[in-house]
Amino acid sequence: MNTDLILKYFPELTDTQISQFSEMAGLYQDWNQKINVVSRKDVDELYLRHILHSLGIAKVLSFLPGSKVLDVGTGGGFPGIPLAVLFPDTQFTLVDSIGKKIRVVKEVIDGLGLRNVEAIHARVEDLPGSFDFIVSRAVAAMPTFVRWVDGKVSQKSVHPLKNGILYLKGGDLREELQDFSKAHIYPLSEYFEEDFFATKVVVHLPLGPTAGS
Ligand SMILES: C[S@@+](CC[C@H](N)C(=O)[O-])C[C@H]1O[C@@H](n2cnc3c(N)ncnc32)[C@H](O)[C@@H]1O
Q1: How do residues 170-206 score in pLDDT, each as one tens digit?
Q2: Which CATH superfamily is domain 4-206 in?
Q3: Which of 101, 103, 81, 93 is nearest to 124 (CA)?
Q4: Beta-strand pair 184-187/164-170
Q5: Which sites bind S-adenosyl-L-methionine (predicted)?
Q6: Which of 45, 83, 97, 152 to mutate to test the pocket of ligand 1 (most atoms within 8 A of CB)?
Q7: Is 92 annotated among the ligand-binding residues?
Q8: How far apart are CA 188 and CA 199, in angstroms?
Q9: Is the pLDDT of residue 211 over 70?
Q10: Is the reported ipTM for this assembly greater than 0.95?
Q11: What is the gyration radius of the CA atoms in the chain, in angstroms?
Q12: How many CB atoms lie within 10 A of CB 144?
């Protein structure tokens, strides 16, 4: 079954979640032929490179019911859509500056019947609202990213981790994170055994009322 890899690490999925993860394969195959949002090679490895990778954030933190999460530069919906399936009681906002990507994301949301996700075509700098956590993958280096999301993190922390950014990154981050002494790195190889995750991490950066605090 195409969801075996997901069940290997998230064995407590409900039947609804299993069928939603399962349906992603067909939805992305269809939509990717019309509008390219995921590279060809990656569609073949959707469950490893996109879905399970996105769910790496869930190994670091379980979002609580009623919390709000923003996915910046979601592209084809990663990491936001897999996380929205896993946390159906958390409200997800997915934003991207390219309209055709948001069109695909909306089709996938409708196809999966997700009620806890909205997809917005905008630059994140122009987006109003505040969120418990901001998630992202492959969008901008941390200094730029922190500037973009300045003021968008709510200050009342109710999770075991302080509100802020949870960013999927890879490679040597020493230079990129040198000005962020509060950043904490969680290697995904501690949770997932596949080679793909050998160099992948989740960076947690707590954010105060302004990015500098
Ligand atoms: C390399 S893609 C990554 C897509 C997705 N996060 C993933 O990992 O598959 C980067 C995405 O960020 C979006 N993006 C770049 N700058 C942005 C901004 N300021 N506001 C919103 N989206 C932005 C781009 O349009 C693009 O879809």
Answers
A1: 988 999 999 999 999 999 999 999 999 999 999 999 9
A2: Vaccinia Virus protein VP39 (3.40.50.150)
A3: 93
A4: unpaired
A5: 73, 78, 124-125, 137
A6: 97
A7: no
A8: 8
A9: no
A10: yes
A11: 16
A12: 10
